[in-house]
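Suppose a colleague, Dr. K., hands you the sequence of a protein chain of 383 amino acids and asks what its three-dimensional shape might be. Before reaching for any lab equipment, you can write down a predicted structure in token form. Begin with the sequence itself:
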Amino acid sequence: MISVVSTVESVPSDTGTSSPSLYQRFRKVFSRDLLVTLALGQVLSLLVCGVGLTSKYLADDFHANTPVFQSFLNYILLFLVYTTTLAVRQGEENLLAILKRRWWKYMILGLIDIEANYLVIKAYQYTTLTSVQLLDCFVIPVVLLLSWFFLLVRYKAVHFVGVAVCLLGIGCMVGTDMLVGRQQGLGEQKLLGDLLVLAGATLYGTSNVCEEFIVKNLSRVEFLGMMGLFGSFFSGIQLAIMEHKELLKVPWDWQIGLLYIGFSACMFGLYSFMPVVMKRTSATSVNLSLLTADLYSLFCGLFLFHYKFSGLYLLSLFIIVLGLVLYSSSSTYVAQDPRVYKQFRNTGSQPVSDLPHLGPLEPSVTYTSLGQELEEDPPVRVA
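The predicted structure, expressed as tokens, is then:
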């Protein structure tokens, strides 16, 4: 009789533990990792805001239209810090060893990154700021598509909902711009400017997906060192061909010098910090976080350029952050085939063809937008 009573009394206790409370569900969604991810993304947005503000001052107040020279300064800083770091390393992580294995791949990636920066900055001379803000979001579907086919990332419905909510937020911000009449940057060749933005966004998406692959599977320092090497070389050639006359027209003084230094510092910080965030999250999550950069630029413009304020801007910020939370609240997984990484590593290990062909490979690695859920190098299971 006693044993029966104790069994009956234990049932409510088990039932209570099986259904989590509202507080526990809230803690599961808004975890420490999610909050850290959101904070890191906003640091990147603030750096992008700094890049935009210094570029605006240089172009509007001092008529210094030098997008290639500005990028060249950043690549030189990357070369001095990260390429020299690779040069003094020993073994397989040495600069010469990396160049011997995959120099042409980094050369192509460097060219893509250079032209992405150039096209988007150049577009401001032809189209409106509103058009740039809208069309620059094209990088997000590009990253989603490339991640699906080349990184084998598989998304859930909540991820697409999160992306849609973020794009709704940026659309709300652009609509507010039109209502308050903030339409800087009108140009005579608007179609050309819009096409430049779309081309630049496509190249940005390609560069970001490659960056995610490299920093998660190779090395952050290797990526930045190679960008510094090839970026400074090819942007230097482009600078000598296209902008040497523009540099002579710049009215050099201490103010312009400080603006170039500020731009270079923000750009160098963005390039150095983005791989850290991307290794923890993903290229898609980073680009969604960067949508708030336009809002930070706006808030700075309220004081610096006397923009008109509207409460709809705060609504836009809330919608974008809500989309980020939705995207980051659920994990994505990678249907990992071991042959993928060998295409880039070019290692001389045992060929994958020796694996037993017993059936299709199951997903073996699980990414989330907050990091990896499994161990660093999980075994590949063959069904």
